[in-house]
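Quick entry between incubations.
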Amino acid sequence: MDAFVPVPPASASPADPRTRRTYLVFCVLALVSWGQVAFRQAGDLGLSGAPGLAAAAGLALASRVAAAAIEAWVYALAWRALGARLPVLWFGIALVALSVVDRLALSLAELAHRAPASAPWAAVLAGPHLLGSRWLAGEPGLRAALGGIGVLTALRLGMTAWLQAAALRRRMRGPLLLTLGIWWASRVALWWTTDLIRGASPLP
Amino acid sequence: MTPSHASWPRRALACSGVALSLAGLAALGWLWHLDRARVRETPRLGGPLVLLRACPVAPEARTWLVAVNPGCPHCRQVLVRLANRPPAGVRVGALIVDTRRRPSAVTLRSLPGAPIWWDASNAWRRRWGHRVYGEVIRFDAAGRYASTRIELPTP
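Done. Structure below.
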């Protein structure tokens, strides 16, 4: 496969000012979109008043940025161990920008909740957890970990690998293998953690 | 010093970080395996639970107990919602969990529904292996365990 996928052009590297501007624009768009979600969820939780809503939304946005920073740091650490240097700041900004894919998956989940007839095709894109709690009913931890696998997950993983390939000026195989490995480890960790938290209790 | 020599300590540090992460994942898997292999008892009414509020005798009624920690507003909301509109043939009460001291009269007055049991010996967590507040433990009319469900505070 690698022979057919060229090294991303130099203009796609975060060393290029235009690429940096693109990352920043999409990063701001993603944050605005997540901010809207955070405001709505804070309202659903019964928080009222501008200070409370702003604090809840700020906290949600900060946790989103922190998650991207941790993800970027994990990739940077893995690449450093392999002898390459990933620009962690710009990769982190690109990951925040890439979270628009997760935002799209969230919108599809909301759509499937409002209009159950749309759930089957939404599940193809955003994962079988949209088909309801009967999927992997006896294994809620596994459902939490793998329920979101769909076309959007593949897109997110492919883009994450491509961003690394562009930043490191490499072919796709190495970044793709590393991305799949880290993603799989994170899913397994989520599965085990969820099971340890719930014990014999069920989950919604 | 060549660049490769200069970056060697950082690379060794990164390798250590990766190895630590993998060790952490393996430790998590070991904990998970131990927890899965634990033998858990089936929930049941009666001892060692302590009955704090009984309910009128209704032989055909099933019993649903909401696992409530008095300090948890979410599980109290679940109890209030179910106790105010119990399904037909069901009496909705509470199982007070993770509470070392006997709940006060004020706490009891704040909890609707009956029966109210107090898990004085932490059987819910230690022997039954349950861990999520607000879950609804269902017993049949004979008091035998039927199932456990998660209910949301709002339908």
